[in-house]
Amino acid sequence: MQPFLFATGIENSYPVIALADGSRRRVDEMEKTGHYARWREDLGLVDQLGIGVLRYGPPYYRTHLGPGRYDWDFADQAFGEIERLGITPIVDLCHFGVPDWLGDFQNPDFPRYFAEYAEAFARRFPWVTLYTPVNEMYVAANFSARLGLWNECLRSDRAFVTATTHLVKANILASEAILKVQPYSKFIQSESSEYFHAAEPAAMRLTAHMNELRFLALDLNYGHDVCGTMYEFLMDNGMSREDYHFFLDRNVKDFSIMGNDYYATNERIVYPDGNMFVCEMFGYYVITKQYYDRYGLPVMHTETNNRADGRDEKDSRIWLEQQWANVVRLKQDGVPIVGFTWYSLVDQVDWDSALTGDNGNVNRYGLFDLDRKIRPVGEAYRTLIETWSGQVNSGLMCLRR
């Protein structure tokens, strides 16, 4: 039986944003949080807490320099230390951005070049078996092509469908390329698990569409035939029948663990005019059960933190306990949930503006602060792992109660 995966992650987002003066700039969270200077110390913190699994990846835009050209210097050092410490990495190969020479997610060449990169990584680090090839495909497409915040900075359904098509195709081709090198690989597909609530009857049609849209990237990735109205939406916005059948015929479901990310911001009340506000109602259990019922795959809770700056440290610990209680209940009710993640290891910077503002705002989401001093939630997570490891790995929690 595979041990339960207690994990954290080192935030490695690197989208390009548009500035008010029309210029564009890369935002790199590993640079903002000091990880490039303190990577060895950070990896030691993972080991110090007794966390066996780390969501982590080298910066794609710095590593893939052009077709067939790579700079492995940072990856060699970091992954050498990860291997030395005995930490199991879940390798995050693309996190919200691409190298400048590839442009953005509208580029139809992105999938094949990304698959080339994934295969090259797998050949260089053949001992790695767990991957998230493309992180949060729905969020990457939504923020880049529907909300106009990152990368291509577009705001249209057609751009969103194009970005989704390329992101999911890249994910599948990269998975297939990795499997050629390391046939024992598993793909833990971290994806935002969301739900939209209708504020009134007039909002029900819009809300139903948004609740289908939240599944789209995973539907395509796992070869799940979409409903008729979603198929019309895809065809009306540029997806070809050939592309659609690529997803039906070429998926990686048999090698996958479904990763569900959940924050207090993942649920929204929707009004008929499209306005919405955040309101946590169902929680991780109910929403993850929806995803599990749809795909029938093993599940991992792949991201959470309290996402609430300015609160007392106590709130982070309460959020940790709440999320863990949801995991325990799912496992007791027969859902094959195999892991849990507090994201991230250290505090983040400027996520309160979705990385679009360069304000230096420290977001207190980490197990450690940016001085690498442990937070109370870090102590609580260490205790949780020590307390629950034997239970979750014994199989006793799989019994219905």
From TrEMBL:
GO biological process, one term: carbohydrate metabolic process
SUPFAM superfamilies: (Trans)glycosidases (SSF51445)
Keywords from the named record: Hydrolase
Matches recorded under Pfam families: Glyco_hydro_1
GO molecular function: hydrolase activity, hydrolyzing O-glycosyl compounds
InterPro entries linked: GH, Glyco_hydro_1, Glycosyl_Hydrolase_39
Protein name: Glycoside hydrolase family 1 protein
Organism from which the protein derives: Massilia cavernae
